[in-house]
Specification:
The chain is mainly alpha-helical. Helices cover about 65% and strands about 5% of the residues. It is built from twelve helices and two strands, in the order αααααααββααααα. The chain has helices at about 5-10, 20-50, 50-65, 65-75, 80-95, 105, 115-125, 140-155, 155-160, 165-185, 185-195, 200-215; strands spanning about 130-135, 140. A two-stranded antiparallel sheet has the order 1-2. α4 (about 65-75) runs antiparallel to α5 (about 80-95) and α7 (about 115-125) crosses α8 (about 140-155). The chain is globular. The relative contact order is 0.15.
Amino acid sequence: MSLALGACATGMVDDSADPFEDFNRQMFGFNEGLDQAVLEPAARGYRAVTNEPVRQGVSNFVGNLGEPVVFANELLQFKVGGAAETFGRFVVNSTVGLVGIFDPATSMGLEASNEDFGQTLGYWGMASGPYLVLPVIGPSSPRDAFGMGVDAAANPLTTAEFEGDTETRIGVGILAGLSAREGALETVDDVRGTRLDPYTTLRRFHVRNRAAQVGNREFVPSDIQEVPDYELDF
């Protein structure tokens, strides 16, 4: 059993290992600058000109487009029941839910899952590798960065060829980014407002959350202990 699976099984996660810290902090600073200059204002503008039902519809639509990738990863992890449920969600929401804008599947008891290829690799014993902050994308790891590439390539929207396919992919990407950033407005504000080092707080949150996802455990954000002073960089 790999270190990653062993850690997940015991619940013990080393969230302080950060051999790329100098690079990561530079990327964190770059991402913070980009976010404050472009992404956050765009997300707040998006919230200002839309209401909750519209934003929920956009979130549902984007999530529904990713269901085939979730389905494939559940099969790769032998989660046959979950794969069947995801397939059912996709069929119901793509038809009755008007291409995923509405989510009747949830009211029918078909709950959403979140499985990606990074989790699949973790399931099969691949350790995540060191914490890694990517430009624009943010917190990740070598395993998860590779997994994101595989998921993107496997998404039917990426490979489908039709008139206006490039414009459609760009539009969906912008919608997904706006929806995700708008949904994280309060969380990011909380991280930035803490007296702790935001970089270290985010690293701890991400590492523990990903370990919980790979180990199929519930992650409780309040479980993150206060970062000791020697880890902070004010």
